Amino acid sequence: MAYPAKTGRDCILAAAMEQIESSGGEPLAIRSVAAKLGLAPNALYRYFENLAALEQAVAEEVRLQMFQRMQDAADQHDSHGEHSAPDQLKAPDQHSAAGQFSATGQADAAEQTDPSATMRAIAEAYLRYAQQQPHLFTYTMKPTCTGLPSPQCVQSTAFLQQQVARLYGDDRATAATNALLSFLRGLALSSNAGVLPPEQASTCFHFGLEAWIEDALRQPDKAP
Questions:
Q1: Is the same domain home to 82 and 117?
Q2: What domain range includes position 41?
């Protein structure tokens, strides 16, 4: 049986992600994704066994996008050349917690090789993605069918733990990484739900992140 060119896995995944974000968080449905692509629902089952498989693919793609944002932020601060912030850092959204934090100028070019500045950039990138894509962000917390961490979860956590170890050392890196992720997830969810107004979310982001960094710098063998 011949399938239209737009039936590819990537096209289906992109349509599903667009539907999630544009529908305001409405549950994903095979029929609506198929309709968006002008396909019969059965055409999607060639690529995704069922709705759960499509949701898992969306979750993994969102995790990958967040990982790439965080990795790019870290690379900007760890590069040895002229520091050039990405566009979203040059012109932050002043109504978002991450945007208001960036505007304080705390992570300037002089700090680009400082692990503290790198972690600030990573945290900003994480929160900014969560605020820009609030409904897709919730998919990052969707459990896998096996109950085990997904491959992208493993990769993202390993990357974060490696960066955190530069501040906290290997012995405390796991606990510090879990604490940072819990803080950022909770802040993102509270901000996206409107529980925290933008100014309060910005204050919480700044206070919590700086307290986390200061805890690392209080260790005698760590320097900013």
A1: yes
A2: 1-48
Residue count (the chain): 224
pTM of the model as a whole: 0.81
Q: The domain spanning residue 74 has which CATH number?
A: 1.10.357
- Asked if 135 and 210 sit in the same domain, the reply is yes
Model pLDDT, residue 220: 58
Cα separation, 1 vs 17, whole angstroms:
27
Q: Which of 111, 113, 85, 115 is nearest to 99 (CA)?
A: 85
Asked if residues 99 and 92 have their Cβ atoms less than 8 Å apart, the reply is yes
Residue 76 is predicted with a pLDDT of 87
Give the count of domains, the chain: 2
**Complete DSSP assignment for 98-130:** HHHHHTTT-S-GGGTT-HHHHHHHHHHHHHHHH
Divide the 224 residues of the chain into consecutive groups of 10 and give the mean pLDDT of each group: 65 95 90 94 94 96 97 82 38 50 46 82 97 96 91 96 96 97 97 94 96 87 50
